[in-house]
Amino acid sequence: MKTDINGDKNSQSLRRRLPPLGALRCFEAAARLESFTRAGDALHLTHGAISRAVRALEEDLGTPLFERRSQRVFLTPAGSELLHSVSQALDLIEGTASRLRACENKAPLVLSCEPTLLMRWLIPRMPQFHAAHPQVSIQLLAGGGPFSFSSGIDLAIRRNDFTWSDQTQAHWLFDERIGPVCRPQQQPDWAPREQDRPHLARHAPRLHSATRPTAWQQWLQLQQLPDAPAPQEQVFEHFYFSLQAAVAGLGLAIAPWQLVRDDLASGLLCAPFDFIDDGSAYYLLSPQPIEEDSASGQLLRWLQEQART
Predict the structure, then answer these.
(1) Identical fold at 21-100 and 177-280?
(2) 12-37 pLDDT tens trace
(3) Per mean pLDDT, which range of 6-20, 180-194, 257-271 is the poorest?
(4) One-letter-per-residue 3-state SS of 264-286
């Protein structure tokens, strides 16, 4: 029953004392992207509009939310606390809105996947999924690292090399196994067998990726081999470039098995040292538990089957 008694939770005159909601949206984007400029691009606003919204929010709360350094911004302790609450609230609103939309079952599932895994593993297998589940529509997005379900993403495939929210549901897909790969014709020179075991030749050119800069060092440590630099080394901007360079015969690249399994099967590449677990794994992430018979449940089951075969 509504009342006119001030302070009563049912009072018609009671008002929530919330910060400006538009400013909270600008704050969340700036905090997530660590940049007012990138937040403006994401929300189709100017840098100045984001800055003014954050300043208004700081004035309303009476505390600074960011430390501004050069071209980047960093959260203060108060900002981190607010981001945690805002992210939870946005995820809750997004989840509720998704359930209430009348055409939810017809809308495509938006699946974000790390670019190299998307290109070399997922996309080549998607025709099989569509053939087996023609009623499920999937929209693929390339993306890596942290993300927010409030930005229109329904599901994400990520390696556990960063920390995600406690509310995020993580469904294991496969463990990461890595090893050097090269063209088969080059194995006798770059990874010759000695006493029935492959040996990494000192002169073998090594291919690196800026997105996984420690891949070679990690593999050498796992194999208990000395971390001596090679006389020929080349660094590529993205991981998939280094793998493609290995296919082209430019050198040895450290590769996860799932990303080169098709090239190994076709004979384009070989793995002289086989593959070894690096301690990480890939997961399908979702904002809520996945029901087995839902579209997400069918996709999860199919992904796990593909990872095993």
Answers:
(1) no
(2) 545 678 888 888 899 998 888 888 88
(3) 6-20
(4) HHHCCCECCCCCEEEEEEEEEEE
